[in-house]
Amino acid sequence: MGHPYHGQQGQLLSLEWLLAFASNPTMRPLLHITLVFLLGLATANAQSIRDHVRLKGNRTTTVTEAQATELTLTVTPVSVRPIQVWIRAAGTVDAARKTVTASLLANDGKRVRVGQRARVFSPESRSRMHQGNVSQVLSSNKDVTVKVTLMGQALDNSQHYIVEVVTEDGEHLSVPNEAIIDRGGQTLVYVQDAGGEYTPREIKTGVQGELFTQVIAGVNNGEHVVTIGSFFIDAEHKLKGS
Predict the structure, then answer these.
(1) Which one, of 96, 156, 150, lies nearest residue 122 by Cα?
(2) Dihedral sign, Cα of residue 51, residue 64, residue 71, residue 205
(3) Quick check: 100 pLDDT over 90?
(4) Contact 178, 189 (CB under 8 A)
(5) Do residues 73 and 66 make contact, with C-beta atoms less than 8 angstroms apart?
(6) What is the DSSP letter of 25?
(7) In sequence order, what are the residues at sequence separation of 6 or more whose Cβ sits closer than 8 angstroms to the Cβ of residue 155?
């Protein structure tokens, strides 16, 4: 049965061993060689770990037709689409229950324009949505005040509402948000190749919308990326690299 402080004693003995070698001039060359050897082992081990977790773009993952059906694996084309960015804020309704006023951060307020579509709902009853349009935008140094005029009267008893303004950021080459995987600082998608193979591709992203994200580099228009089932593909790919 080991002593409860066995590990600590082992560390102390190692330290004493090194000190003994260092104090003996004739043993110092051997100590130097030993330390260089240990440092080489540590460096090789660290390199092995880096090689294990680093993305290797030439490896592919194959999924059978049966697996694809079971997982409901879905691919979506990379294409140029309009990207919608929804701006959300808390607001209050007026006495007539027809206008909701909300305060936005200055950066969010830059996207909002009169006439944009909006919807509001009570935090207590999200299932009941009220449609409307932005009727006024007032900017100040710190924030932006937005008024949304509802198409009908808000019949809820609540005084406070969540406001969602739908803004358009133009058309961009994009992929669905579900296709994107964040892994250790890398932003990846899995691109479908011929023969049911899927290759990880690192991408550079731009504007992130409600449903789609702009892709600046990494994929081409017309390629297909995995959306539903991408995490399974990623897990399979990691296993093949282990």
Answers:
(1) 156
(2) positive
(3) yes
(4) no
(5) no
(6) G
(7) 97
Q: How far is it, in rounded angstroms, from Cα 191 to Cα 219? A: 8
Q: Which CATH class is domain 53-81+172-241?
A: mainly beta
Predicted confidence band of residue 109 (pLDDT cuts 50, 70, 90)? very high
Helix extents (H) in the chain: 6-23, 28-53, 65-71, 106-109, 230-241
Nearest-angstrom CA–CA distance, 35 and 37: 5
Domain residue ranges in the chain: 6-52, 53-81+172-241, 84-168
More confident of the two residues 190 and 55: 190
Stated length of the chain: 242
Predicted model pTM: 0.64
pLDDT score recorded for residue 48: 42
Residue with tokens 């102390």: 12
User: Of 121, 85, 89, 86, which is closest to residue 104 (Cα–Cα)?
Assistant: 89
**pLDDT for 68:** 54
- Strands (E) in the chain, as ranges, are 61-62, 75-77, 79-93, 99-105, 117-122, 125-139, 143-150, 160-176, 181-183, 186-192, 197-202, 204-208, 212-217, 224-226
User: What class, spelled out in words, does domain 84-168 have in CATH?
Assistant: mainly beta
Confidence band for 81, pLDDT divided at 50, 70 and 90: very high
Is residue 102 within 8 Å of 136, Cβ to Cβ?
no
